[in-house]
């Protein structure tokens, strides 16, 4: 039996490459078993591997056991394929499992929601599988998405919509928090470029500490509160100003938008 053939429609795009280059480097996908398509093929970046590139989605699909969709939602209507009997994996926001199954006549369908950190192999990628998927299908998804970060199976479309907000949009929310800190520093007389460097390094260092700390984020805060120093003063003032409410509102709005897109299609 030959290698499982993967065809990625839109695989030369921003997210497609961010997922595929680590998967190729890790051997989760073999170059000779991968075809990527785009309307402007060939795209640069796949030179180290024997990846095939095409503009012909029908030819890509005919050769593939697994077809992955990584085009923008507005480009989906132009892709009309019968993918009966194949595994379909979509990384597109707001296109639900049932729609993917109906459009492509596929029963084995997986939806995943990586984030921008895939490029750094630091995505958190929840994925959701239709009941008809096999153990091998799910093992492929787990291995593929693990190459660009951390993969997590979820059980409902509502969960996937929530993660579309929490971790799909998450890098932008961290940028918003960082920008608020930079703006404050600038109002206190710090030069903007120094404030930007300081806050970028802060997020890198703080994230690294949190990532492998034995403490939960809540416990880390408690440690600082118990220390009762300058950090505690800051945390108490943020709590008094109800910092959690705007964060919860932002996540709720983003998740509602993701769910509205999912439910309206
Ligand atoms: N970027 C993120 O952070 C992120 C995170 C999670 C999920 N997503 C999802 O990922 C999907 C892709 O986003 P992206 O940021 O990677 O967009 P992108 O950079 O524009 O990539 C989309 C790719 O699709 C290709 N394409 C469009 N129509 C096509 C067609 N008919 N046949 C073959 N290829 C086609 C485009 O190339 P040509 O124009 O040359 O055809 C382009 O390379 C979206 O649905 C988005 O919801 C993105």
Task: Describe the fold and architecture.
With 265 residues, the protein is α/β, with parallel strands linked by helices. The chain has two domains: 6-158, NAD(P)-binding Rossmann-like Domain (Rossmann fold, 3-Layer(aba) Sandwich), CATH 3.40.50; 170-264, Orthogonal Bundle (ProC C-terminal domain-like fold), CATH 1.10.3730. The protein contains ten helices and eight strands. The protein has helices at residues 14-26, 57-63, 97-104, 135-146, 157-168, 170-187, 192-211, 217-227, 230-240, 244-264; strands spanning 6-9, 34-37, 52-54, 66-69, 87-90, 108-112, 123-129, 149-153. Strands 3-2-1-4-5-6-7-8 form an eight-stranded mixed sheet, with helices on both faces. Helix 5 (157-168) packs across helix 10 and helix 8 (217-227) packs across helix 9. The mean pLDDT is 95. NADP nicotinamide-adenine-dinucleotide phosphate binds next to helix 1.
Distance between the termini: 38 Å
Shape: elongated
Low-confidence stretches: none
Q: Trace the largest sheet across and list its strands.
A: 3-2-1-4-5-6-7-8
Largest sheet: 8 strands, mixed
**CATH architecture type of the largest domain:** 3-Layer(aba) Sandwich
Let me know the CATH homologous superfamily of the largest domain. Answer: NAD(P)-binding Rossmann-like Domain
How many individual domains? Answer: 2
Please state the average pLDDT score.
95
The CATH class of the largest domain turns out to be Alpha Beta
Rg measurement, Å: 21 Å
Indicate the CATH topology of the largest domain: Rossmann fold
What share of the residues does DSSP label as strand, in percent?
Answer: 5-15%
Total E-strand runs: 8
Total DSSP helices: 10
